[in-house]
Amino acid sequence: MRTLVVYESMFGNTRHVAEAIARGLEDAGTVATVPVARVGDEDLSSYDLVMVGGPTHVHGMSRDSTRHGAAVTAHKPDSSVTLEPDAESEGLREWLDGLPPSHGKAVAFDTRAGGPALLTGRASKGICRKLRLRGFDLVAESESFLVDKESRLEEGEETRAEQWGRTLAQQTSSSRK
After folding, report:
1. Which of 51, 57, 120, 130 is the most buried (most CB within 10 A)?
2. Which residues form the Flavodoxin-like domain (predicted)?
């Protein structure tokens, strides 16, 4: 099974989750983990599974204004977060909007603050909608991984992401038989 994990990350949390998911998927085949700023015109139809994840900003996927806000936060003298190298590039929203119609299996994930999704929002909801509009079949429920009030991944979330990747690998492999 060939899997592509595409992610957007501001402070490294979504990158850590994407890398953990990829570790969980490795037993099922080849996994490429790529930040959205570097995915370019990758032929998504050459993958058996495409996973897409990003941070939740203002109840949904990031946009130019929220990426700028993240950069401002990271550059404050008393900031406890470090901005990822590609954080100010175009994000998932723009990449997904520019994808040609396609087909294949996909799954979405996000990082967000703890609490009911109704209050925090979920970037994965918009990611799922855009993937379906591009012709992808969503083969599993999206998943959220939680960050604390200091914008740090909560304890155990990386382990949970790796286990989720293993579970998805098993489900996808058994559905291909």
Report:
1. 51
2. 3-169
Mean pLDDT of the chain: 94
Flag whether the pTM goes above 0.85. Answer: yes
The distance from CA 48 to its chain's CA centroid, rounded to whole angstroms, is: 17
CB within 8 A of 60, min separation 6: which ones? 121, 122, 123, 125, 126
Length of the chain: 177
Domains in the chain, CATH or no CATH each: 2-176 (3.40.50.360)
Contacting residues for 45 by C-beta, under 8 A, at least 6 apart: 102, 103, 104
Supply φ then ψ for residue 138, to 5 degrees: -80, 120
Write out the two tokens for 94: 């723009």
C-alpha dist (Å) from residue 71 to 24, 36, 68, 85, 100: 31, 17, 5, 11, 30
Q: Rounded to whole angstroms, how far apart are CA atoms 74 and 17?
A: 20
Structural tokens at position 126: 């918009």
Cα distance between residue 89 and residue 107, in whole Å = 23
Beta strands at 136-138 and 49-55: parallel, antiparallel or unpaired: unpaired
